[in-house]
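Hi F.,

I've been meaning to write this up properly since the lab meeting, where we talked about keeping a consistent format for the predictions we share between groups. The idea is simple: the sequence comes first, exactly as it goes in, then the structure tokens exactly as they come out, then a line or two of notes. No screenshots and no reformatting. I'm using this chain as the first example so we have something concrete to point to.
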Amino acid sequence: MALFGNDREREDRPRNPVPEPAMPPPEPRPQEVEMFEREREKGRPEETGGTSAFLGKGTRITGKLAFEGTVRIEGQVEGEIASQDTLTVGESAVVKAKISGTAIIVHGQVTGDITARTRLELRAPSKVVGNLNTPSLVIHEGAVFEGQCAMGAAQEPSRRGKKPDFSALLKSSESPEDAPPIQPER
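Output, unedited:
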């Protein structure tokens, strides 16, 4: 006879215990964010991948730069910059250059023309003096822009300068039936 019923426990247990399936480790909890923060993060081009080139604060470059991946500039650049991916001009950057790229984000100072093929963002405390050409422009509060802006698809050099003729629409003496048809740009 056993105390506290130990003999009964042994009889109730199966002789070949089957191991329980291993539980997967708990998934990490999602990071707490402010309302709508996730949607904003999805739309930011600079967050889409790692940086493939970085020019730090102490960097000074004069000349023509060409990049294929994501780039961040924090130093001083003078000349021309061409990027095939996202180009970010950091807060400490001072750039005097003609800039072209797919998506461009400016936090620092830029003097020169900027052409972005998909999107251009001017974020505080950026200061841009020059002409902009991009189909999508975002100017955040606190950013400064002095110059002209062309909002349209980035055009090929051979098509620049050709603008549609809207003079037919301005003539009030002709009736709409007499006006020549407007031809789309080719």
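Notes:
The mean pLDDT is 77.
The CA atoms of residues 57 and 166 lie 48 Å apart.

If this format works for you, I'll send the rest the same way.

G.
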